[in-house]
């Protein structure tokens, strides 16, 4: 029979070295299970003399208790360690602030596009559209700009590629929204009152020009529309758009597709890197306009002896610069949210066409 102290030392060591609950359970069976080493010794008490039994009995009981207590303590220690491991792995600081999401904002050009359309809609103008890749005829010829006309060169046109051997005139990226005048007249005839906002393209790049920009075309044709109506509509538009009356300047000008023609400038001032409307002695050209040329009416399929009216083409980006004090047009197309915030674009704060009009 192994000596009791050896037995004790062996199990106490094994228990303290046990790595997990399964190993501990094995030790328990081995020591104090039914056929465990200590249990077997207790069973052998019956074969001892009463004197021996009196000494060995309490000793064995004490040993069994000690082993059981060591097993229980180790079990608790293992459970603690496991819990600590888990807490470390699953650690979560519920007091941290939540992740904020960056909020998108409408682009100033989109906002102004919608504002313009809404104001003209109030004056009875419907919205029309045309393609951005346009036939040469709609962009030029129909607007009284024949092949040799200098306006073709002046407009810095982007020409589309033609397959080799294809002798037709190349399509162009429309240089203005005026081709929509022709398309609308062809589709609807007269009388007509439309605006056509959209993208236009010219090979030009500086502080007030970008190769892609936006225009809104206006066209009003009826029996007796005059230059006076044009002036009223535009002045009405500007005071609605800027929310106050601003000084405008109508300058005699020339376009092949209007006669007479006028360009309109808005009074403004460049001040501390931004542009302010309604003061100062600078003028920013914002649109071209005039009475629609008889040849244009003819190209649109209506009789110039019966119908007359005005047209205008306004730079959406230009009037966006003026309203929001943005000095460089290029900033519209290579900037981000921080830049927009700088100019006060937090979110859409005007009624949108898509969301329904509430004016
Ligand atoms: N299409 C002209 C431009 O882009 C503007 C314009 C439109 C002028 C309509 C007169 C009438 O400059």
TrEMBL record:
List where in the cell it is found: Cytoplasm
Can you tell which superkingdom this protein's organism belongs to?
Answer: Bacteria
Question: What is a single Pfam family found in this protein's UniProt entry?
Answer: tRNA-synt_2d
> Per the record, GO CC terms?
cytoplasm
* E.C. number(s) listed in UniProt: 6.1.1.20
Q: Which UniProt keywords apply?
A: Aminoacyl-tRNA synthetase, ATP-binding, Cytoplasm, Ligase, Magnesium, Metal-binding, Nucleotide-binding, Protein biosynthesis
Q: Which residues form the Aminoacyl-transfer RNA synthetases class-II family profile domain?
A: 119-351
Q: Which GO terms describe its biological process?
A: phenylalanyl-tRNA aminoacylation
Tell me which Gene3D superfamilies the record gives: Bira Bifunctional Protein, Domain 2
Which Gene Ontology MF annotations are present?
ATP binding; magnesium ion binding; phenylalanine-tRNA ligase activity; tRNA binding
Which protein are we looking at?
Phenylalanine--tRNA ligase alpha subunit
Q: Which organism's genome codes for this protein?
A: Salipiger profundus
């Amino acid at each position: 029979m192994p000596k009791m102290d050896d037995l004790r030392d062996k199990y106490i060591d094994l228990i303290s070295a046990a790595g997990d609950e399964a190993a501990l359970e094995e030790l328990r069976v081995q020591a104090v299970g039914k056929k465990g080493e200590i249990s077997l010794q207790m069973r052998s008490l019956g074969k001892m003399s009463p004197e021996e039994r009196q000494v060995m009995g309490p000793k064995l009981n004490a040993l069994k208790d000690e082993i059981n207590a060591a097993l229980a303590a180790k079990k608790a220690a293992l459970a603690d360690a496991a819990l600590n491991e888990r807490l470390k792995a699953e650690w979560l600081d519920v007091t941290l602030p939540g992740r904020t999401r960056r909020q998108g904002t409408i682009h100033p050009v989109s906002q102004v596009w919608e504002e313009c359309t809404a104001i003209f809609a109030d004056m009875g103008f419907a919205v029309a559209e045309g393609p951005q890749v346009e036939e040469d005829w709609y962009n030029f010829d129909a607007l009284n700009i024949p092949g040799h006309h200098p306006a073709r060169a002046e407009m810095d046109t982007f020409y589309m590629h033609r397959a080799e051997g294809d002798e037709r005139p190349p399509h162009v990226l429309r240089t203005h929204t005026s081709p929509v005048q022709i398309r609308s007249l062809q589709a609807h005839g007269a009388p007509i009152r439309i605006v056509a906002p959209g993208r236009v393209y010219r090979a030009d790049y500086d502080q007030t020009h970008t190769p892609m920009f936006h225009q809104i075309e206006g066209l009003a044709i009826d029996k007796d529309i005059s230059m006076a109506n044009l002036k009223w509509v535009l002045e009405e538009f500007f005071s609605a758009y800027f929310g106050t009356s601003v000084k405008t300047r109508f300058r005699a000008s020339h376009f092949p597709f209007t006669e007479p023609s006028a360009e309109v400038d808005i009074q403004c001032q460049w001040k501390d890197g931004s542009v302010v409307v309604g003061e100062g002695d600078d003028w920013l050209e914002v649109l071209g306009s005039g009475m629609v040329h008889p040849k244009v009416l003819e190209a649109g399929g209506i009789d110039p002896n019966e119908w007359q009216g005005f047209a205008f083409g306004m730079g959406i980006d230009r009037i966006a610069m003026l309203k929001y004090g943005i000095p460089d047009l290029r900033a519209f197309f290579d900037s981000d949210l921080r830049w927009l915030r700088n100019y006060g674009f937090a979110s859409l704060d005007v009624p949108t066409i898509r969301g329904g009009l509430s004016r």
